[in-house]
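Worked example 3. Consider a protein that binds 2-acetamido-2-deoxy-beta-D-glucopyranose.
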Amino acid sequence: MVCSSSSSSVNFLFYSLVIFLTSTTILASYGGRNETDHQALLKIKLMISQDPYGALTSWNNSLHFCDWTGVTCGKRHRRVTSLDLMSQGLEGSLPLHLGNLSFLRWLYLFNNNFQGAIPHELGRLSRLRFHNLELNKFNGTIPHNISSCSNLEVLDLSYNELVGSMPKEMSFLSKLTFVSLGNNNLTGGIPPFFGNITSMKVFDVVENPLGGSIPDTLGRCKSLTEFYYRNIFGSDEGEADEMKFIDTLKNCTRLEVLDISYCNFHGVLPKSIGNLSNQLHYLIWEEDQLHGNLPTSISNLVGLNFLLLHGNQITGNIPSTIGNLQNLQVVYLGENQLSGQIPDTMGNLSLLITLYLYSNMLEGVIPSSLGN
Ligand SMILES: *[C@@H]1O[C@H](CO)[C@@H](O)[C@H](O)[C@H]1NC(C)=O
Ligand SMILES: *[C@@H]1O[C@H](CO)[C@@H](O)[C@H](O)[C@H]1NC(C)=O
Ligand SMILES: *[C@@H]1O[C@H](CO)[C@@H](O)[C@H](O)[C@H]1NC(C)=O
Ligand SMILES: *[C@@H]1O[C@H](CO)[C@@H](O)[C@H](O)[C@H]1NC(C)=O
Ligand SMILES: *[C@@H]1O[C@H](CO)[C@@H](O)[C@H](O)[C@H]1NC(C)=O
Ligand SMILES: *[C@@H]1O[C@H](CO)[C@@H](O)[C@H](O)[C@H]1NC(C)=O
Ligand SMILES: *[C@@H]1O[C@H](CO)[C@@H](O)[C@H](O)[C@H]1NC(C)=O
Ligand SMILES: *[C@@H]1O[C@H](CO)[C@@H](O)[C@H](O)[C@H]1NC(C)=O
Ligand SMILES: *[C@@H]1O[C@H](CO)[C@@H](O)[C@H](O)[C@H]1NC(C)=O
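Given these inputs, the predicted complex is written out as structure tokens:
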């Protein structure tokens, strides 16, 4: 009796002690906060093979994970809301556990050496707003599950080694304002659904072998301010259709930057270019195969600061209406087949700082007004 009773009280004491110790350990190391986030961060650390600047030395048990370098937590719930490890020279890959940081709003891994796939689990981050993996070595495709990040506003995957096409599921990302996918190996053109994302302000897909043409639907992007498309292997569409998007873009009344160089567009420089936004500051259409005249309608683009049409096959005179573009600062019209005289009106461009007209067939005297 005595023996058995003392054995059970020892047992009781033992278990209480275990429970006590366990709970104090948890309290000590994680302040009783969310263990899922803690485990996810530890997994991230585990997958990092190089940390040249010691960015993750603070990621140890003597600190609460909310105080680790690059980690920010919500004040109330103490869940991870931001992970910012930019330019730390980190090498490694991302664990599936990243998808467990369910309060994450801001993921910023810009300029490191992360490699491997972007995990599909990212799609579980439904609060994610800002997603920047620019300048890493991520490969494989853009995970279609990203479409579940329905609050995503900024997506920057530029300067990686991504392949495949932009997943059609991205059309669900109705809050996107900024998409940068430049300098990858993406193919499959610009999918028409992007036109349906009417919140889009900046769209940058430069330096991809994208192929395809610019879809008409883009004209629905009423908020579009910057559009960058330098298709390294050239457009593969028929000549007649290629320029239709210029008509389409007239609806983008806030357009400030249009960069469509190196796209292998060949056709007459469309007159409707003068219908583009009068807020256009940069018109960059270099090294294509544009021919025909420089339309006089270009003088409607009164907001232009940069007119870069270098390296095409544009013929005819420089229209004297160019003098209306009072905001011009940089004009590159070199390596075309322009002829006739430089118009006097160019002297009206009092803000002009750079004028390249070399390699044309211009003749006559240089107007003295240029001295203005
Ligand atoms: C834990 O992080 C703190 C804060 O950065 C640091 O001072 C300490 O040396 C780290 N401990 C270990 C064992 O790395
Ligand atoms: C976190 O994510 C991984 C992989 O997606 C999963 O296996 C695990 O059960 C998740 N939950 C916790 C609490 O770590
Ligand atoms: C990805 O999304 C699909 C549905 O489109 C879902 O069935 C799958 O579980 C998701 N995968 C992950 C890893 O979240
Ligand atoms: C991505 O890179 C990793 C590591 O460099 C490599 O093992 C893997 O095969 C690559 N995957 C693809 C789809 O290219
Ligand atoms: C794209 O693919 C080509 C050929 O496979 C390769 O040489 C090049 O390095 C890749 N570029 C990027 C940015 O991944
Ligand atoms: C764009 O949205 C409209 C309706 O809002 C839909 O009918 C159409 O199929 C969508 N287009 C694309 C290419 O997703
Ligand atoms: C441009 O806007 C007009 C008027 O809102 C509309 O009728 C037209 O369909 C739009 N064009 C494109 C290509 O979206
Ligand atoms: C667009 O430009 C063309 C050619 O310059 C012109 O005929 C047409 O009226 C313009 N359309 C609009 C809507 O401004
Ligand atoms: C523009 O230049 C021409 C020729 O140099 C000149 O006659 C004219 O007055 C100028 N117009 C304006 C608005 O400065």
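Take a moment to read the result before moving on. The domain at 2-297 is CATH 3.80.10.10 (Leucine-rich repeat, LRR (right-handed beta-alpha superhelix)). Residues 203 and 320 are 33 Å apart (CA to CA).
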